[in-house]
Amino acid sequence: MATQTQQNKQPPLQVAIIGAGIGGLALAVGLLHQGVPFTLYEAAKCFSTVGAGVGLGPNALRAMEEIQPGFRKLYGSISSGNVTPGKDHAMMDALLVEEGFGEKRGWKPVSYGAACYERTSAHRKDLLDIITGSIPKENLRFGKRVTTLSQTDRGVVIAFEDGEFAEASCAVGSDGVKGMSRGVVLGERWPELVNATYTGRYVYRAVIPMQKAMKIMSKDLDGHERAGDAKMFMGDQCIIVTFPISKGKECNMVCFKMDDKPWMYHEWTKPVTKDLMLSDISELGVDRRLVKLLEFANPVQWALHDHLATPTYFSGRVCLLGDSAHATLPHQAAGAGQCIEDALVLSRLLGLVSSPNQLETAFSVYDGIRRPRAQRVVRTSREAGDICALKAPGIGDDMDKIVANQCQRYLWIWEHDLLDDVVRAESEFRSRTGKETPGQQPTGSLVLAVAV
Ligand SMILES: Cc1cc2nc3c(=O)[nH]c(=O)nc-3n(C[C@H](O)[C@H](O)[C@H](O)COP(=O)(O)OP(=O)(O)OC[C@H]3O[C@@H](n4cnc5c(N)ncnc54)[C@H](O)[C@@H]3O)c2cc1C
Ligand SMILES: *[C@@H]1O[C@H](CO)[C@@H](O)[C@H](O)[C@H]1NC(C)=O
């Protein structure tokens, strides 16, 4: 039996998470470990795994291991590195997308990476599987598209497309770059910053059986399979990235096409004919082996948008997490990592919240710690995009300078001290809520939570 002395009884905390991408799922696992009640609402009927390959840097892996101890081991069982031995720390081999990969200009492929970096990529589906494995089914609601979020003095009221309503103490909008929660947070004060910005590039994406990819790409002069190791083929009109996924059984390809016109199509994915897709790329003088790989792609142009400026990640009891806050160009392969870092910091803060009236303080501390770093990733990913498009100021198409830049530019992302973020977040929350630090004697009237 529980005996409780409660004064100023507060309703129990109930967090609504909107969107079950990597960000929302990582937060769900974090809240599960912190004992914070939540419900995750996802518009789709099941997890969406569009986009195939995703690579996690050392910061992303550390953050996920902190959220879910044992994650790294699971990730090891689904991720793939370079096939060539001794290239564990090589992020990419730098080449040119033009016929002959730059050999005609005398360029010999060079790898870039760092000692702290371990080359790995996974299939999105496998990644979501190992994250969702621990979330109880009753906390997940699929087929629930949120249409409006309104704030009341008791929390938030969530309306769904199917006519249902739900209440929660707060909502975390992890509904992606096109999500509706961003409008709720920014719409009144910064209407011009709600919509994401077209970055002037779209991608075609392919997953190719590794045997076929190796046959098409053949071996390089050193006798290594070109398709077996992660590669960045740079060019001013087109950039192509290939890397192994699915334990080396498949090769993931992302083909970026520069586009100087505004995106006019009413959707962000535009189906085209296969012929149009192939001529769109082959007419740029792209190496014919890469065009052959492109034959495996979905003939869909996927427009890339980002959120360069986001003046706040929260408003009242609604908070943004992941791409809804800081969608980024993928040129630093760092977007998902920032979603996971958000989830780490926010789940720890929500774990400290003992009454709903502390939620805004938790969101404000999260905003102060996460926003500068995540927005810097968005900014520098644009720079990285310019570098790979051979048009960065002072670098241009000088491949030696490009490689030198690539060897340095990720260190602040990868080596960041995440535990320090968590410690700073927790201590700032405690000082702003007047909460005792552990070890101190609690004072005043306290809520006794007694297990039955
Ligand atoms: C080509 C490309 C390559 C990339 N490669 C990498 C990489 O190698 N490494 C890396 O770290 N990052 C990479 N990224 C970035 C990474 O994919 C994203 O940062 C990450 O997937 C975003 O996750 P998210 O959970 O914020 O949003 P999303 O994955 O977009 O998930 C949002 C979810 O919310 C749901 N939703 C939307 N609206 C509603 C609503 N109204 N109600 C309910 N649910 C809703 C959606 O259905 C979806 O499931 C890449 C991105 C691109 C485009
Ligand atoms: C944002 O996008 C929506 C939908 O595409 C559009 O209707 C609206 O006008 C845009 N808002 C701004 C400020 O550009």
Question: Can you walk me through this structure?
Answer:
- With 452 residues, this protein is an alpha/beta fold.
- The chain has two domains: 12-81 and 121-194 and 307-385 and 410-427, 3-Layer(bba) Sandwich (FAD/NAD(P)-binding domain); 90-118 and 197-306, 2-Layer Sandwich (D-Amino Acid Oxidase, Chain A, domain 2), CATH 3.30.9.30.
- The chain is built from 14 helices and 19 strands.
- It has helices at 22-34, 58-67, 71-78, 124-132, 181-186, 210-217, 274-282, 288-294, 323-326, 335-352, 359-388, 399-409, 411-414, 418-433; strands at residues 15-18, 38-41, 53-54, 90-96, 110-113, 122-123, 140-141, 146-152, 155-160, 165-168, 170-173, 197-209, 231-234, 238-245, 250-258, 269-271, 300-306, 314-315, 318-320.
- The protein has an eight-stranded mixed beta sheet with strand order 5-4-13-14-15-12-17-16, sandwiched between helices. Strands 7-2-1-11-19-18 form a six-stranded mixed beta sheet. A three-stranded antiparallel beta sheet has the order 8-9-10, with no helix packed on it.
- Strand 1, helix 1 and strand 2 (38-41) form a beta-alpha-beta unit.
- Helix 2 packs parallel to helix 10 (335-352).
- The termini are close together.
- The model is unreliable at 1-8 and 439-452 (pLDDT under 50).
- It binds flavin-adenine dinucleotide and 2-acetamido-2-deoxy-beta-D-glucopyranose.
